[in-house]
Amino acid sequence: MQPEARTNRTAVTEFILLGLVETDNLQPMVFVLFLFAYLVTVGGNLSILAAILVEPKLHTSMYFFLGNLSLLDIGCITVTVPAMLGHPLSHKRTVPYAGCLSQLFFFHLLAGMDCFLLTAMAYDRFLAICRPLTYRTRMRQTVQRILVVVSWACAFTNALTHTIALTTLNFCGPNEVNHFYCDLPQLFQLSCSSTLLNELLLFGMSFIMVGTTAGLIISSYIHVAAAVVRLRSAEGRKKAFSTCGSHLTVVCLFYGTGMFNYMRLGSEEASDKDKGVGVFNTMINPMLNPLIYSLRNSDVQGALWQVLVERQSLT
């Protein structure tokens, strides 16, 4: 049995991504929509980055984290969408085994970093509103960089663990992935060996990540809400609720889709639903983040307007 297992292990050398839709007539429309969404997402997040760099008022810890979030959004959509757009152009839907693992690793690296960065942003709001007198010393640049480095380290560990665990599975049968990018639940369905340990690992690490970070975020905002209610200034309450409301909206979208996708066991018939969740994770969330953070933030709006004016003056 062991020699046969070793042979089966190398039987599948590439996977076929079925894409978002299987009807050829819908492919051009999907291509245009995804291309438009990709350009809007990259353009919107680059605009946020430019605004943060140009406007001195935005050189604070909150916008330092927001700038990192914009970079993550660009990376997350770039890992998945351009490859999907290339398939109808090349009339080729296959992806090598190593390429599938690479896409999975980088997607989970960036998504995990997103999770930890949102927690750091909640901690920053907690210090700014609940500990204003010591905020500058507690959230100095060194602390900001340490939080980002630790977030990268945790996200890297999570992504590498799942990628290595996936290489222990045998793929010896069908190789059609019912998705538009490589992800763990869909690859589990194709394995001809038991995926119970992998599913338990995915559920367990997702539970630890989501439970820990969500607990910290909820705890931070309970304290923030109590502090905001005590503010005498109506303008101060409005500004605090505006910045915190934007962050909470992003947190709810991110955690809602993530929990649906990874915190469940035995997902044999959930691939069609997973496609919709995948669209949220890879495209809609990164596209909405710049809008959410700019529409309710006058400082960001002013900086974006300054960037546009300067660009027009140069042309």
Automatic annotation (TrEMBL):
Subcellular location field: Cell membrane; Membrane
The name this protein goes by in its record: Olfactory receptor
The encoding gene: LOC109573562
One family name in Pfam for this protein: 7tm_4
Role noted for this protein: Putative odorant or sperm cell receptor.
Gene Ontology, cellular component aspect: plasma membrane
CDD domains xref list: 7tmA_OR3A-like
Keyword Electron transport included in the entry's annotation: no
Gene3D superfamilies, alphabetized: Rhodopsin 7-helix transmembrane proteins
Isomerase found in the keyword field: no
Species: Bos indicus
Chain ranges passing through the membrane: 29-54, 63-85, 105-126, 146-165, 200-229
GO molecular function term, any single one: olfactory receptor activity
Span of domain G-protein coupled receptors family 1 profile: 44-293
Membrane-protein topology: Multi-pass membrane protein
